[in-house]
Amino acid sequence: MELLRKLKEVGTSVIPISLMVTLLHLFVSPLGDGQLASFYIGSALVIVGLALFLVGTEVGLLPIGEKIGSTVTAKKNLPLLLGTGLVVGFVITFAEPDISVLASQVASVNASINETVLITLIAVGLGLLVSIAFLRVIFKLSIKWMFAIFYVMLFVLALFSDPSLVPVAFDSGGATTGPMATPFIMALGIGVARIQKKQEEADNFGFLAFASIGPILAVLLLGISNPNSEASLAQGMAVSYPSGNFVPLFLEMAKDVLFSLTPLLCIFALFQIFLVKMPTRQVGRMVVGIVYAFIGLVLFFAGAHGGFMPVGFALGKGLGSLSSGLLILVGFVFGAVAVIAEPAVWVLVEQVENISRGHIRKSTMLIAMALGVAISVGLAMTRIVTGISIWYYLVPVYTLSLLLLKNTPVLFSAMAFDSGGVASGPMSSTFILSFAIGASVGQGGNPATDAFGVVAFVAMTPLVTIQLLGLLYKRKQAKIELKGAKG
Amino acid sequence: MNSTLLLSIVGKGEAEKLMTIAKKAGSPGGTILRGRGTASNALLSLLCLGESRKEILLTLVFEQHYEAVFDAIRNTSNLHGICAVIPSKRGHRAEGVQTMHNEWEMVQVICTSGYAEDVMDVARKAGAGGGTIIDGRGTSKPDDLKFFGASLVPEKELLMILVEKEKSEKILSAISAIPFMQQEGNGIVFTLPVTQFVQLGHKELLDN
Lengths: 487, 208
What we know:
The complex is a heterodimer.
Chain A: H1 2-27, H2 35-74, H3 78-95, H4 97-109, H5 115-139, H6 143-160, H7 166-175, H8 181-194, H9 207-225, H10 246-276, H11 280-322, H12 324-339, H13 343-355, H14 362-386, H15 391-404, H16 410-423, H17 426-443, H18 447-451, H19 454-486
Helix pairs in contact in A: 1-2, 2-8, 2-10, 2-11, 3-5, 3-10, 4-5, 5-8, 5-9, 6-9, 7-9, 7-19, 9-16, 10-11, 11-12, 11-17, 12-14, 12-17, 13-14, 13-16, 14-17, 14-19, 15-19, 16-19
Chain B: E1 2-11, H1 15-24, E2 31-37, H2 42-47, E3 52-62, H3 63-74, E4 81-89, E5 104-112, H4 116-125, E6 132-137, E7 146-147, E8 150-151, E9 155-164, H5 165-176, H6 179-182, E10 187-194, E11 196-200
Antiparallel strand pairs in B: 1-3, 1-4, 2-3, 2-6, 4-11, 5-9, 5-10, 6-9, 7-8
Helix pairs in contact in B: 1-3, 4-5
């Protein structure tokens, strides 16, 4: 049965995190009373939640997105297509619980920016770019050129924007698409690609990549029109880290998830009534799937917040005050294991395996992602230790990923730019972020400034590693063909 | 030349293993499709928990290799699934094939995407066990679905259900009677004769 299969898969990838935390607790940096126990409970919740979420996504969220994507395209009505992109992007942004956190972060860096204006602009930006993603497939525009143009544009804008906003802007790309929105946007693209007569595997991807450009663009633009004001960094981040107590967490998380789910449901209902008109049996299945995904996410979030966040903070603080070298090393390993527990990552790698019909295996993709994020978190720790500007990281890594576009097979480039937004999900914003904040406290730095940019780090390195994986596949393919020609 | 199509449906990741076995026994090669198995009973189907990933292996073997390949496939352990034997003619139309005695039939339904589950529900009520669904796309006329640079085609689903021959008539008419199957362009249903059928991973044989 699919649920058992998922439990096994997810379990084997989450258990290494627990083992590692146990080892660190025993030999390096002991955790407080009850923290380890609630971490174990948290791990169990994360495993069960993730498995349930994945089953639900497959039965519910993905088919809905695919159906909307393919139906809207098949109507052959350009305004409808663009309107759908705009509305979906707009609604999803408003529904994201993380967006208000982001808005208050921005306000803490640049007080002259109005939060409502910011959120509206991000929503419009995201919607506009989802529309552009639709257009790209219909008009057969080169995805590589579009990535190159957009990212160069982002960096030019960043030069003129308020410097303190740059890390926040790049964070926002990953932060605005949560675990509900990510599969949905991904599925839209798959739906559009599925009904194309000329089947291009790369057409299935790229929607998420464009979706994460939108928010960055919006924040940077606001930074230009609101040049630096009195930064009120001193207030810092008033985050408390209670351990254990899962019951109130369940309720809180249920409220959050419901909040982000409702608008999606409204979109689905509207499309079902006026455009898609699926048979009742299918609608029933999708509703059941959404219920599974909902329960799964609530369990997952409760586990991540109640179990992982406190431990991340405590270990970061402990290691940060012990040794910088060890901090970077543990950050590296935590990066690798945390990305494998990201819900959206699993959805992406499964889609990759499906679309390539088993050619690109799930495990290969997971390894490439894990390696990428491991490097990310390692780098983020070096930034906390040395305190050097985020520009020294963003510019070389993005330059490299744009240069790689030239030779990487287009499928891998499209997947790589999608995976950036996928890698930076709830695990990085709970476990990794609190680890970084803890590390900053331990090192005696300013957690408010150090914390910004961590999500951006997680989102940028998969761009490089997935494309490198593509180059590897290309070489392997060339060798096979050479052998075939000889034999 | 007379050939036989061996159609095996196994769990995810198992088709390649089966192909290796078939190749050793003389099969020239095969094609792997990905599909999903429907729930085996109505309750699991209602809960949407009964689905599973499947792989379909199609291998066309010549008459002289058929016995060896089929024996090799039937004797594999630690694989779970079925293998159906469908008579065919390689490179020719199949009508010249002498119809052997067949106790099983494979019902094939091609319908507009999204309806296969409903068809399966109807088939289940008419006596079928479970089925396997493969996603596909139709080949519409070249110029009727142009949209700027893109040509669009409709999404289709192929549902395969293996049934005893005496049940197939009832299932076929039940499926044909579904209202949407009667609308033009929505779906077709046909059967293929299955001369032999074996459940993989079980030693006891269910054919002849």
